[in-house]
Design goal:
Thrombin, subunit H; six-stranded antiparallel beta barrel
Length: 107
């Protein structure tokens, strides 16, 4: 059994859910199967090679039209399976800046 690194609960799909991976710049796209998912990440089985793809940051498209998606970064690779972490909207510095502008008396 592998060491579980994920902290949140995960949902495992019996047959997997067809999805797509796409480069941030749109220069590549791969079919994949969503094997399991949690609030923070997912495990994917990728069709075709991932060699040479820019996987530091990419989109996981959950619909063929691209309307449902998550921004991802690569966590691990094991053969044709990869683990991804979901990237939250906004970065830490932007969120910290918003917190500082809140007036505690108003909240």
């Amino acid at each position: 059994m592998t060491n579980e690194r994920r902290t949140g609960d995960r949902v495992v799909f019996e047959r997997g859910i067809p999805a797509f991976m796409m480069g941030i710049d749109g220069t590549w796209r791969r079919n994949c199967i969503l094997e399991d998912v949690s609030e923070t990440g997912a495990k994917l089985t990728v069709e075709g090679s991932v060699e040479g793809l820019h996987l530091k940051e990419f989109f996981l498209l959950l619909s063929s039209t691209g309307l449902a998606y998550r921004r991802c970064e690569l966590s691990w690779v094991n053969g044709d399976q990869i683990g991804v972490n979901f990237i939250k909207q906004g970065d830490k510095s932007r969120r910290d800046g918003r917190r500082q502008t809140l007036d505690p008396a108003v909240v």
